[in-house]
């Protein structure tokens, strides 16, 4: 019985050929044509109901030449800071270091560490401190930055940062279990990142 | 497949990414200047309204706020 199942599974995969990367797929259609057809056959008088597919905007296609601006979506759980803003460059605090993203950047997924996100547009730079999150850069020069908490640098209190840093440094030396040590280390990392963001 | 190379220190200590991310977010929120800090703390409170249903009818809902258990 299992051997037949293996045969059944293997056939469709072999028949459809190599699967393409998600970055190469054409933009998805906005309405399900088969469903609309079937609906109209049965109920020609009413409009077919909208499916989730029709509410989604199709992903903008990858242009053949590098666009001049990067489109950034910077979202937080409670607000979207930047929604499809066209900028020249963003520098994101990835775990592998500060990463500069220009239009035409290769498609990348990067995890963020606590640090400064700077958005460069013309001559202006806006800086935010990001607690952690991810950045998804798509091949069509769209960048989605998602963070749990972010604040402009002028909303951060330097005294509280210093206090926190000394408090966690002390906690690290008095920590016993692995978990306590990890928490204290996280505290130190976040506060020193905040510190260098304010002073740097 | 080979096992993953250097795991982050918090993963090695048994913490999940979500816990790590929430701790970072809380630490940043606690370092904000005054009017923003109180806004941020109220924004992050979570309230649940739970109503039990019996015999197909809802009973009076109860309100629970986020319990500080990690």
UniProtKB/TrEMBL annotation, chain A:
Signal peptide: none annotated. Keywords: ATP synthesis, CF(1), Hydrogen ion transport, Ion transport, Membrane, Mitochondrion, Mitochondrion inner membrane, Transit peptide, Transport. Its main location: mitochondrion. Pfam families: ATP-synt_DE_N (PF02823). SUPFAM superfamilies: Epsilon subunit of F1F0-ATP synthase N-terminal domain. Residues 71-141 form the ATP synthase F1 complex delta/epsilon subunit N-terminal domain. GO terms for molecular function: proton-transporting ATP synthase activity, rotational mechanism. It is found in: Mitochondrion inner membrane. One of its GO terms (cellular component) is proton-transporting ATP synthase complex. InterPro entries: ATP_synth_F1_dsu/esu, ATP_synth_F1_dsu/esu_N, ATPsynth_dsu/esu_N. Mitochondrial membrane ATP synthase (F(1)F(0) ATP synthase or Complex V) produces ATP from ADP in the presence of a proton gradient across the membrane which is generated by electron transport complexes of the respiratory chain. F-type ATPases consist of two structural domains, F(1) - containing the extramembraneous catalytic core, and F(0) - containing the membrane proton channel, linked together by a central stalk and a peripheral stalk. During catalysis, ATP turnover in the catalytic domain of F(1) is coupled via a rotary mechanism of the central stalk subunits to proton translocation. F-type ATPases have 2 components, CF(1) - the catalytic core - and CF(0) - the membrane proton channel. CF(1) has five subunits: alpha(3), beta(3), gamma(1), delta(1), epsilon(1). CF(0) has three main subunits: a, b and c. Belongs to the ATPase epsilon chain family. This is ATP synthase subunit delta', mitochondrial. It comes from Hibiscus syriacus. The lineage of its organism: Eukaryota, Viridiplantae, Streptophyta, Embryophyta, Tracheophyta.
TrEMBL record, chain B:
It is found in: Mitochondrion inner membrane. This is ATP synthase subunit epsilon, mitochondrial. It comes from Hibiscus syriacus (Rose of Sharon). It comes from the Eukaryota. GO terms for biological process: proton motive force-driven mitochondrial ATP synthesis. PANTHER family: ATP SYNTHASE EPSILON CHAIN, MITOCHONDRIAL, ATP SYNTHASE SUBUNIT EPSILON, MITOCHONDRIAL. Mitochondrial membrane ATP synthase (F(1)F(0) ATP synthase or Complex V) produces ATP from ADP in the presence of a proton gradient across the membrane which is generated by electron transport complexes of the respiratory chain. F-type ATPases consist of two structural domains, F(1) - containing the extramembraneous catalytic core, and F(0) - containing the membrane proton channel, linked together by a central stalk and a peripheral stalk. During catalysis, ATP synthesis in the catalytic domain of F(1) is coupled via a rotary mechanism of the central stalk subunits to proton translocation. It holds the Pfam family ATP-synt_Eps. One of its GO terms (molecular function) is proton-transporting ATP synthase activity, rotational mechanism.
